[in-house]
Specification:
353 residues; two-stranded antiparallel ribbon; mainly alpha
Length: 353
């Protein structure tokens, strides 16, 4: 490992730890039973949402009712994402005329996004329409992450409450997770990503000429069924477009798998600069780390929250160093091919970029 590696890791951990207390305190206020300045700011929006959806925010749910509400809600989300994929050919915002996703792939993806699973079995830019990406996958990124936060808050209340059989209201926790935590952070991160050049538009895919024409071999069958091979020149390439930045923000903050493009944040349109990469990596651990402090504050002993975070870091940091060292070393099979994998002024060394 190089000095630069250690400095980057130290900068990342320093930024993360600096944000833990303010964000953790903020989330403790968001989920507090007592009125406070944070919840008063969005109280009007909350009341409208509860009235439209027929929710009684004062209802205190027991663990069974809370669990059933969570399961039914996410089942409906799963079915909605599945339906969007199967019907996208006939729905708007499909400039690339993406076909309907196959039943097995649609179900696989719907389950993945409903359960906040880091799994992607499709190429985003070659499979999903803009509408499916926004209304299906991006929305579910919010809702699955909000569900996870809500369940954690219910668990914390289970530790704290002594005279109440209820764990809170799932719909209120879900709404507040989205309205006060995920949406504001996603808006900020989206603006940062757009400033770095991440794609955010509704334009059709763009055809551009390549710098150097290449040829590929194609095999076709003639009228008699005989296979023939011929060279086909490649003079253009397709650049995918779409509302990527807004989805990437919540993908990172909600620790969701499934990027707008098939290679996720390894794609230059999704992660074009070192600064965008730093913020995307920071976003992955920001909310989980801050929730440790939220736990400590809500149970009345901040030391418990710091202890949880310390336990996580004791596991995370050594493994991070091992992984960084392995990536920095590169692939030993390439040494025999004369590939220079040593860190220098012109390259980061190994598999690093």
């Amino acid at each position: 490992m190089t000095t630069n590696d250690y400095l980057q890791i130290a900068l990342f951990l320093g930024a993360l730890l600096l944000l833990v207390k303010p964000l953790g305190s903020y989330m403790a206020c968001v989920f507090s039973d007592a009125p406070n300045r944070v919840t008063r700011l969005g109280a009007g929006v909350e009341r409208v949402l509860y009235r439209v959806c027929g929710i009684r925010p004062e209802e205190d749910m027991g663990w069974k009712q809370y669990t059933w509400a969570m399961l039914v809600f996410n089942l409906l989300g799963l079915l909605a994402v599945y339906a969007l994929q199967r019907l996208q050919l006939w729905l708007p915002l499909n400039p690339a005329h993406m076909a309907a996703v196959s039943p097995d792939s649609a179900m696989n993806t719907a389950i993945s996004f409903a359960t906040n699973t880091n799994w992607q079995g499709y190429g985003g830019e070659s499979t999903m329409s803009y509408l499916t990406q926004m209304l299906g996958l991006a929305v579910q990124n919010f809702l699955s992450a909000a569900t996870g936060i809500a369940v954690l808050i219910a668990v914390i209340r289970g530790f704290v409450r002594r005279s109440s059989a209820g764990l809170g209201n799932f719909w209120v926790d879900l709404t507040r997770s989205t309205l006060y935590v995920l949406v504001p952070l996603s808006l900020l991160l989206t603006l940062v990503l757009v400033s770095q050049g991440v794609v955010q538009n509704f334009k059709p895919y763009v055809q551009v000429p390549v710098l150097q024409t290449t040829h590929v071999t194609e095999t076709t069958n003639d009228a008699a069924g005989h296979a023939t091979k011929h060279e086909v020149p490649v003079t253009t390439q397709t650049l995918p477009m779409g509302p990527a930045a807004s989805q990437i923000a919540i993908k990172q903050l909600g620790t969701n798998g499934g990027g707008f493009f098939s290679v996720n944040s390894a794609h230059p349109f999704e992660n074009p600069t070192p600064l965008s990469n730093f913020f995307e990596v920071l976003a992955i651990l920001l909310i989980p780390a801050a929730l440790c402090y939220t736990f400590g504050k809500m149970v009345g002993d901040r030391r418990q929250g710091w202890a949880l975070l310390a336990a996580m870091l004791v596991i995370f940091v050594p493994l991070l160093l091992v992984c960084t060292g392995a990536e920095q070393a590169g692939n030993p099979l390439l040494h025999g091919l004369g590939v220079d994998q040593h860190a220098s002024a012109l390259q980061a060394g190994g598999n690093m970029e």
